[in-house]
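Budget justification aside, the reviewers requested a transparent look at the raw inputs and outputs of the sequence design task funded under Objective 1. We therefore reproduce one unedited record. The lines immediately below are the structure tokens for a 72-residue chain.
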């Protein structure tokens, strides 16, 4: 455990934070860091978990190539 922030994985404000970039989010095109919750698709695309969680279901499916609509 980190002696400064008391987290196992230091968040960015901590001087001990390991902010290693893992890759780029395929949705928002911003860097995904090692400490951030993330998902990786089998073909290699990387996403912030946050980005996907914020999407409405139909958009989420579209991101993964599923063309679906809510049926009334
Ligand atoms: Zn720390
Ligand atoms: Zn993102």
């Amino acid at each position: 455990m980190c002696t400064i922030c008391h987290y196992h994985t230091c968040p960015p404000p901590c001087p001990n934070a390991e902010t290693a970039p893992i890759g780029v989010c395929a949705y928002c095109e911003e860097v995904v860091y090692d400490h951030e919750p993330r998902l990786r698709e089998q073909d290699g695309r990387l996403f912030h978990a946050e980005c996907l969680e914020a999407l409405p279901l139909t958009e989420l499916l579209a991101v993964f190539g599923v063309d679906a609509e809510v049926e009334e």
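The first strand starts at residue 21 and ends at 24. The chain is about 15% helix and 20% strand. Computational costs for records of this kind are itemized in the attached budget.
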